[in-house]
Amino acid sequence: HAKKSGRNTFRAYRKGMDELIEKRRALEADIERGLERGEFELYLQPRVSARDGAIIGYEALLRWNHPERGMVQPGDFIPVAEVSGKIIGLGEWVLREACRLAVDLPPHVHLSVNVSPVQFRHPDFLAGIEAILQETAVAPQKLELEITESVLIDDDQRARLILGHLKTLGVKIALDDFGTGYSSLSYLSRYPFDVIKIDRSFVSALGEQETANAIVRTIIELGNGLGMRVVAEGVETVEQASYLSAAGCDELQGYLLGRPQPVVEIAREISETVVIELRRIARRTVHR
Ligand code: C2E
Ligand code: MG
Ligand code: MG
Ligand code: MG
Q: In the UniProt record, does the keyword Lipid biosynthesis occur (predicted)?
């Protein structure tokens, strides 16, 4: 009897595995088809100055308008795309699309793009970026690449060479999700980061866990001391924003400042900002 139930458990397990593998295969094929049919879209989330709320730039966040499944979030397909290698084509699409968008942004506004470790490790990574920069004729200063600590772990020499080369081109580099990975402090002095992004988990724990406040203050001090801009991710409350701003954080990003939105919405927002800015300049001129 025990033997039989064991066999049944195994069969159920096999069935579960087969279904999982089948589902993943379907998703892989779906990604390919989704790219061909234009189902992917970049949403933009603003990053604002902690001093005066001015928009410094936007982070591009990938969305998938799936014909059957509706809007699919990156957490549900990027891991599969990474394992299957589909992230290479997808990442190239993201970069090209982001650079095209960046061309139309005001000159002082940059666009941040997330780079998967799988993309970064690909031998053609750097050549691909150079080609897209050239093809879109975007000012490289408008492009910022967000990488995570995991890309720095395995091939130190290569990572340093690539980051150094990107910097020479004028592309900015941000260290994303800071504090969640292996987070060795030595990364900060060994690589030429322009920006460090404090992970959302620390920001959301501000005022709730004493250690979070200490960690956040220390990251800000460290970043400032090394001449990097420090950005806080996942800012949702006014209390978090004022704490971060008082602590010397340079930029804020999070639902409080703006949710990720389709590009059309952003375009409306920018033109409004420009209008307000123009009005302010006009008023100042009249006063004088
Ligand atoms: P990330 O780069 O750390 O992006 C920040 C994530 O936090 C985004 O989730 C964003 O929508 C979310 N977020 C922003 N503000 C708040 C807030 O105030 N509260 C909360 N709860 N969440 C907030 P999203 O868009 O689902 O992206 C998740 C992750 O997927 C990203 O984390 C990034 O690692 C990855 N990802 C997104 N787009 C791309 C892409 O184009 N390429 C690659 N390789 N990865 C991407
Ligand atoms: Mg990011
Ligand atoms: Mg992040
Ligand atoms: Mg993340």
A: no
